[in-house]
């Protein structure tokens, strides 16, 4: 199979509001795919649906050839949430080794995961004493320690300095080159250029599913920020035109 994730006509309602509205897209295997969009656009809800922990109102989500949430996927999918998902009263090393044990991995894999996220100097520190950015990286180490086939990362670079951001993206691409598939969300458009493929989402609707180069070409600009804005305006214009035609037809 070429696709690690295949989503068709996904609809999610939360709190009486439609959060995702008919999203259809795909994530090829062995790529770094960016899920980009402003805060509140539905990125986290989309990721929860892929992991299989989100109730959906319609559509299908297939992950590694199986329905999202299938028990057999638990050992094959890693998930990093926005909130730190590690134990504050354990050290970074103790957290990584605990999660490694859950995956049947050893101390060597745990220590390597810590090094890969740049936390080796803080391996012996209690998570409670870490900065917000360090806690996020500790959570990332725990998400990667099982060497999953698919990694879902919800804004993993928030709070990281530019050097660490660059190091993390280099790590993501090295993982993809080795066959891992990564879906990485961000609301920072300058990270879009670091991705092999982009899913641009706004107000629960997918407005682009293509490579960064193709997104630029479709918008007719070189800057991805401007490309995103042009795609939004084109979508709004099309919606307005459709609504106006429907109104004329209803009143005819």
From TrEMBL:
Pfam assignment, any one: ABC_tran
Membrane spanning stretches: none
InterPro entries, per database record: AAA+_ATPase, ABC_transporter-like_ATP-bd, ABC_transporter-like_CS, P-loop_NTPase
Domain ABC transporter: 5-228
Keywords, sorted A to Z: ATP-binding, Nucleotide-binding
GO MF term set: ATP binding
Source superkingdom: Bacteria
Protein name: ABC transporter ATP-binding protein
Lineage, broadest ranks: Bacteria, Bacillati, Actinomycetota, Actinomycetes, Micromonosporales
């Amino acid at each position: 199979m070429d696709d690690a994730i295949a989503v068709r006509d996904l609809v999610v309602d939360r709190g009486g509001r439609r959060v995702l509205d008919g999203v259809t897209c795909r994530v090829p295997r062995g790529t770094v795919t960016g899920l980009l969009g402003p805060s509140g656009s539905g990125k986290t809800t989309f990721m929860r649906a892929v992991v299989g922990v989100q109730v959906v109102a319609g559509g299908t989500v297939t992950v590694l050839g199986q329905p999202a949430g299938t028990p057999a996927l638990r050992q094959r999918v890693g998930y990093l949430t926005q909130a730190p998902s590690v134990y504050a009263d354990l050290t970074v090393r103790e957290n990584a080794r605990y999660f490694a044990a859950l995956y049947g991995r050893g101390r060597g894999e745990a220590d390597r995961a810590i090094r890969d996220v740049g936390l080796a100097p803080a391996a012996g520190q209690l998570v409670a004493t870490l900065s917000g950015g360090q806690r996020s990286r500790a959570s990332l180490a725990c998400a990667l320690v099982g060497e999953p086939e698919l990694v879902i990362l919800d804004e993993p670079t928030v709070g990281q300095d530019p050097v660490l951001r660059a190091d993390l993206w280099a790590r993501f691409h090295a993982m993809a080159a080795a066959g891992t598939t990564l879906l990485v969300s961000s609301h920072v458009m300058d990270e879009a250029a670091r991705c092999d493929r982009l899913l641009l989402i706004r107000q629960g609707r997918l407005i682009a599913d293509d490579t960064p180069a193709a997104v630029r070409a479709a918008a007719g600009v070189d800057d991805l920020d401007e490309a995103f804005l042009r795609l939004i305006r084109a979508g709004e214009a099309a919606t307005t035109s459709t609504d106006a035609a429907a109104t004329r037809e209803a009143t005819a």
